[in-house]
């Protein structure tokens, strides 16, 4: 009889000990100890559907250590926003120092030339910049209503309804870019059609799939006012940081449009130029902006004289399409306007 009572007690005590050890380990790691990583890995590349909670569960054996994972990756601004392609550190990165022989007889040494890091341009509003698409940017669905019902909507966490569902293989957590397309953009010099200006209005995430052609979604980011009928397509990432690169060949073009539909643009404004990937333009290229040569009249002789083109600013390319690129004006000595000349810096 005593043996029957002792065995369950021992099993219960053993289970409690294991649980206590694991809880103690988790608490120690939360308090600052280095989490133990499963497998011989130190980094992980984020995949669609990943979260810090999920990555912590896969590599640390428990999801509750996600704050430690976040702490190991200070480049992550918001823990609930990580994107496919991001590299996550799973361990504290300790720099490795090379061991070299030291000869006390040779005290003099020359520090070799160290290449400076390449210059980088960071534009935090890249997701608001928009671009010009050669055709009406293909959309997957539209916003058909909201809760409560409104014609205009745009606040984050607003619940919207979209005309996508099981027929479109939509799942909870899917993310979409909300956008609108303007009327055709015409080249200011040749008057030929360049494409359509795309304004990125924000982002939304599927909250619940309600039917074959219906889902609810929450607005997760808002750049501009949205409305019923706004188009959506799978979320597109916009690069905020580009490495400054020199061009490889001579290239001239024109500013064909600006983001805000104004007559002029100034420093930090978004402009679009008629040169793209087909011209070997890449993000990080810089262009010098010139005003057009203009004719002035000599009051003494009555003759017309031509004033050559003069540099008035610079722009850096942040997004490239086939025949058009998006740029940010980074220097401006006077107002920049449609039709101004741009020349690739080499």
If you had to describe this structure to a student in words, what would you say it looks like?
The longest helix has 29 residues, at 2-30. This protein has 3 helices and 23 strands. A hairpin with a 6-residue loop joins β8 (175-186) and β9 (193-211). It is mostly beta strands and 346 residues long. Strands 5-7-10-9-8-12 form a 6-stranded antiparallel beta barrel. The protein has helices at residues 2-30, 52-60, 66-71, and strands spanning 43-45, 87-89, 120-122, 131-133, 141-147, 152-153, 159-162, 175-186, 193-211, 214-222, 226-227, 231-234, 241-243, 252-258, 264-265, 270-273, 286-291, 294-297, 304-307, 310-320, 325-332, 336-337, 341-344. Mean pLDDT is 82; it is low at 1-31 and 94-98. It is 13% helix and 36% strand. It has 3 domains: 27-89, Membrane-bound Lytic Murein Transglycosylase D, Chain A, CATH 3.10.350.10; 126-234, Beta Barrel (Thrombin, subunit H), CATH 2.40.10; 244-344, Thrombin, subunit H (Beta Barrel), CATH 2.40.10.410.
Present the secondary structure layout.
Layout (H helix, E strand, L loop, with lengths): L1 H29 L12 E3 L6 H9 L5 H6 L15 E3 L30 E3 L8 E3 L7 E7 L4 E2 L5 E4 L12 E12 L6 E19 L2 E9 L3 E2 L3 E4 L6 E3 L8 E7 L5 E2 L4 E4 L12 E6 L2 E4 L6 E4 L2 E11 L4 E8 L3 E2 L3 E4 L2
């Amino acid at each position: 009889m005593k043996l029957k009572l002792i065995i369950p007690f021992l099993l219960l005590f053993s289970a409690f000990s294991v649980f206590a050890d694991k809880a103690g380990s988790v608490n120690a790691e939360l308090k600052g100890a280095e989490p133990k990583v499963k497998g011989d890995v130190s980094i992980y590349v984020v995949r669609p559907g990943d979260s810090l909670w999920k990555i912590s569960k896969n590599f640390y054996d428990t999801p509750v250590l996600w704050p430690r994972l976040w702490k190991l990756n200070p480049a992550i601004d918001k823990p609930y926003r990580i994107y496919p392609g991001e590299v996550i550190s799973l361990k504290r990165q300790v720099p490795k120092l090379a061991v070299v022989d030291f000869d006390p007889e040779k005290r003099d040494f020359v520090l070799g030339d160290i290449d400076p890091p390449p210059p980088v341009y960071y534009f935090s509003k890249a997701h608001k910049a928009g671009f010009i698409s050669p055709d009406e940017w293909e959309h997957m669905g539209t916003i058909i209503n909201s809760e409560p019902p409104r014609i205009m909507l745009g606040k984050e966490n607003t619940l919207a309804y979209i005309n996508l569902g099981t027929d479109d293989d939509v799942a909870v957590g899917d993310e979409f870019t909300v956008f609108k397309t303007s009327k055709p953009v015409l080249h200011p010099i040749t008057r030929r059609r360049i494409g359509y200006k795309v304004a990125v209005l924000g982002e939304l995430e599927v909250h619940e799939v309600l039917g074959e052609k219906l889902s609810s979604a929450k607005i997760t980011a808002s750049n501009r006012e949205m409305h019923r009928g706004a188009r959506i397509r799978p979320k597109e990432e916009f690069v905020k940081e580009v490495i400054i690169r020199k061009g490889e060949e001579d290239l001239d073009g024109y500013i064909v449009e600006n983001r805000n539909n104004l007559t002029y643009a100034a420093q930090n404004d978004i402009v679009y130029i008629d040169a793209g990937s087909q011209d070997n333009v890449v993000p990080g290229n810089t262009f010098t902006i010139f005003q057009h040569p203009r004719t002035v009249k000599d009051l003494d002789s009555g003759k017309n004289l031509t004033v050559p083109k003069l540099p008035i600013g610079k722009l850096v390319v942040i997004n490239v399409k086939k025949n058009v690129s998006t740029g940010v004006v980074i220097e401006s000595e006077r107002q920049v306007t449609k039709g101004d000349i741009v020349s690739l810096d080499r």
